[in-house]
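## tool: complex_structure
## caller: assistant
## args:
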Amino acid sequence: MARPIATRYARSGDVQIAYQVVGQGSLDLVFVPGFISNLDLHWEDEGYSRLLSRLSAFSRLILFDKRGTGLSDRVDANALPSLETRMDDVRAVMDAAGSSRAAILGASEGAPMAILFAATYPERTRSLVLYAGYAHFHKWVMDPERLQTFIDAAETNWGTGATLQNFAPGRLDDARFAAWWARFERLSASPTAAAALARMNAEIDVRGALASIRAQTLLIHRRNDARVAPEASRYLARNIPDAQLCEISGRDHPIWTGDVNRVADLIEEFLTGTHAPPDTDRVLAALLVTRVSDTARLGDRMWSERSLRFQETLRLLVGRHGGRIADQYGDVVVSRFDGPARAIRCAAALRDAAQGIGIASAQGVHVGEIDARGPPSGLTVRVAVKIAEHAGRGGILASRLVSEIATGSGLHFVDAGRLALDDLEGPLALVEATSEQHLEPACRSRTPAAAEPSALTARENEVVALIADGKSNAAIAIELSLSEHTVKRHVANILTKLDLPSRAAAAAFAVRQTGPDGP
Amino acid sequence: MLATKEAVTGASIKKAIESRDGPMLSSFYADDALVRVIDRNNPPSKPREIRGRAAITTFWDDICSRAMSHRVDLTIAQGDNLAFSQDCAYPDGTKVFCAAMLELKDGKIARQTVVQAWDE
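## result:
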């Protein structure tokens, strides 16, 4: 969500610090960001935007980029400012925004700065919130050796999004977020500045300041935080007078990833004594994610012709099934339907259309709540995209919930294993939509007689094992020294013998036969 | 409970607001007073509610801690009802306009509704 928010500059010594003020609440809340930041870019990420919207709904939220990052003045990478100097930027921004007293929210590397501010200016600190904070870098974030590895990697890979794995491993497969993260790196700091910032953060040790904090303090830490050990906040809880610690579930470190609403609820409740009623602007929807790909290596020109033809057909078919296209990026289309049966029927029609045009499709269907306004975003969409990524060529995978809601629709599903997702507490049960067979029960188990692996030849068993490894026909052909045509024939025979609808189902079958650890 | 330093009138409210006197403002409210704030983030069907004098004291302490100017232009009194409009400005130039309606009970503010609009 891009919002037209004015960016202003506050003078702090010789340096101009960029800041934004948003919200109309009676209390001032200053957000001190972590390692790197960019005021303009934050609003373009769904999670960041949600966090800022939530916080600014009850406060006058003051945001800034620390010197050397984002929209603020650059600093000499060879003469880096001390933590005290950077902390004083908070004061300069508060002065410019007319805030004599504010609640300070420090996230990650922003926490030690917030600690120092609260200890230095008790009269200007209304209260303190530290998210994934720490008092000593080497003790709770990285030892010198790991830091050097991080800096070496940053110096060579900076700007590609390579640091994402250090901060939010749960979002590595989220192509859109990974692309945003790469921009976030580039627009927040140059490679040299990033390495310098990392070295500067390594100097952080504010353990001596903890006892002099007078403000009421809330500490929030995710139990499996990938970047800062939760013990860091437990130490803060023991050493900051009048601090309360709240450990929550989750692994991704940035405050704007994972369950942002949970974090916002805790902060709002701590600062105002109450938190916003649950979002009522949400509706239940069935989402269909359609991916097409050029598995046949058609070449750019032919692929773009066919892809265009498919997009036209897709618009027509989605409309015909009562849905509408909600979002589109690359070769992925997200369409939204009122009910899952329509989504599945549309998916089947799209699969046939793709086949007719001569391109490969893979689709996922999931049902859940989404925001009533704007393009769908959030957990339901992420899950639907993951399901589509898991689907094999021509496959239509859905969460089990879809098959349960579609009971009585005449659609047929078979079990297709489980999918582990970081966002969810447990693995998600999947089903594969099969062709309609009106005389059979709606959710059948495969007939045991037909599903014996012994029905397959030795070669077919080898092929099915490789399919289960996620290998393409081309890759299987190379591995078994066969032609791709022969592999295709084996795959067709396997599906016929086992009475399975797709490669994905064959893969699921193979995994069930051998167990997760192999034969 | 703080002693009421001054009677709740248009003039005393104007003086307290313009001098950013949080304790004085808080002393104008009844113990169980309710302040409702309606703005862009808190629409009429879901206004932000601040209940009780303790919460209202925090509310005014927060607002009065801002280095900003307030000017109360117009106050209208009619029986136990009082209304005023207020122009505010932050040092960076951001302007806020508020209109407030108050219901008095036994000389204290029992209920107040504030409608505000901000430069953004």
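## assistant note: The beta strands of chain B are 29-38, 48-51, 69-78, 81-89, 95-105, 108-118. Chain B has one domain: 10-118. Handing back to user.
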